[in-house]
Amino acid sequence: MSGFAQRSGSLFCEGVSLEAIANEHGTPTYVYSRQSIEQAFLAYQSALSDRPHLICYAVKANSNLAVLSVLAKLGAGFDVVSVGELERVVAAGGDADKTVFSGVGKTPQEMQRALEIGIRCFNIESEAEMMALAAVAESLGQSAPISIRVNPDVDAGTHPYISTGLKENKFGVDIETARRLYRAAQASSALMPVGIDCHIGSQILEVAPFIASLECLLQLFDELAGEGIELKHLDIGGGLGVSYDEPAPSIEDYLSALSTHLDARGCELVLEPGRSIVALAGVLLTKVLYLKPSTARNFAIVDGAMNDLLRPALYSAWQDIQPVTPRQGEVLTWDIVGPICETGDFLGKDRQLTLSEGDLLAVMGAGAYGFAMASHYNSRPKVAEVMVDHDAVHVIGEREALNDLWQRERLLPERDA
Ligand SMILES: *Cc1c(COP(=O)(O)O)cnc(C)c1O
User: Fold this and answer.
1) Host H or E run for residue 212
2) Is the pTM of this model over 0.90?
């Protein structure tokens, strides 16, 4: 269930037409379906109901406070990669003690704040980072709960920019190093090993790489138990793909495969899904400004651009583009491009559509890594975000004004003559 469907000739989000949203809130605007976010989260929760688990939503996929709060209300935990994300979780009413902290470059200040708030676990990515955390925890008289991020060296078969589980990636440590770090942590009063984790990449469309990583983690988990290092949780990371164009495994199929491999183990399973919770729950609503047909290519220039939605430009990602109110007429092949001065500024290429100036288009599957990756490039203010809840539309992110762009900039003082 994506929350978006054509109904009586027009595209709706839950009970509200996107045309009504465009009239009321303008374009470009991100539109999210609350129900669809909840359903994806509940699919994880119910598939794991018979084993101890914690679903830590990866905040970086979509960090809007309202999104976090919807998930917090369902009992979600969170995976954060900066103190900024951690403070967002707190501001949205999320539980610190259900929050895990990932990322290769946590600063001592970030570690200190996370210890003060009392997070569930630090996902450690290097020996140097672990030593820094031990020093911070010691100065606070605390013992920091840690998990070592193991790099299982599996190829997730995804785009190189979002593949993280290979030896050559900057993430995690190899098994040998992990073993050594666990022994050192066990011996330190400032560190408390509580789990083991990995995260092999994003937009992964097969279950096999997850199973391979799980087996790798389980082997080390058991080995450590044999040495008296009893870990409580096993965190398999995020990364489950969604169906932008190719079919993706369902959340249920993915979890049943994981469960089979965990069989009767009692350890808590932690997951860090981002994309699979929010991607299909959002669209970028944009308007056709100008049509520019030519003998070489037909361009539809829209008001949304790569600064609003970067995935097509960054990863050549394909996202479906639907007319909000489909019209009769000649179908042509269009490149849907934004106003930014870059050839890479496109939202979609070679799309078969019947278009007129002023038409509204919905770039589907834009709920994850959409607004979260937006920038001000070309001095374009960040767009509005709304969340639909049945028949109600709530503004959850105000459109920026132009002077928001330079609010923190300063002119130089006049030079003395
Ligand atoms: C990005 C990330 C996730 C979420 O990945 P998705 O593909 O959005 O599910 C989870 N864990 C870590 C450590 C990440 O960096």
Assistant:
1) helix 208-226
2) yes
Q: Which residue's CA is the closest to the ligand 1 atom numbered 3?
A: 238
Cβ(175)–Cβ(150) below 8 Å? yes
Ligand 1 neighbour 308 (Cβ under 6 A): no
- Decide: 217 and 198 in contact? Cβ < 8 Å: yes
Radius of gyration for the chain, computed over Cα atoms and rounded to the nearest angstrom: 23
Dihedral sign computed on CA atoms, order 405, 406, 409, 412: positive
Closest ligand 1 atom to 103 CA = 13
Q: Is 85 in the pocket of ligand 1 (CB under 6 A)?
A: no
Atom 10 in ligand 1: which residue has the minimum CA distance?
A: 238
Homologous superfamily (CATH) for 4-32+279-404:
Lyase, Ornithine Decarboxylase; Chain A, domain 1 (2.40.37.10)
> Residue 1 has what pLDDT?
53
Q: Is the CB of 202 under 6 A from ligand 1?
A: yes
What class is the 34-278 domain? alpha beta
- Model confidence pLDDT, tens digit, residues 202-245: 999 999 999 999 999 999 999 999 999 999 999 999 999 999 99
To test ligand 1's pocket by mutation, which of 169, 199, 206, 251 has the most ligand atoms within 8 angstroms of CB?
A: 199
Cβ pair 20, 299 in contact under 8 A? no
Is 13 noted as a catalytic residue in this protein?
no
149 lines ligand 1 (CB under 6 A): no
Q: How far, in Å, CA of 72 to CA of 97, rounded?
A: 12
Using a 6 Å cutoff on CB, does residue 269 contact ligand 1?
A: no
- Chain region(s) in the chain for CATH 2.40.37.10: 4-32+279-404
Stretch(es) of the chain classified as CATH 3.20.20.10: 34-278
β-pairing, 53-58 vs 298-302, is: unpaired
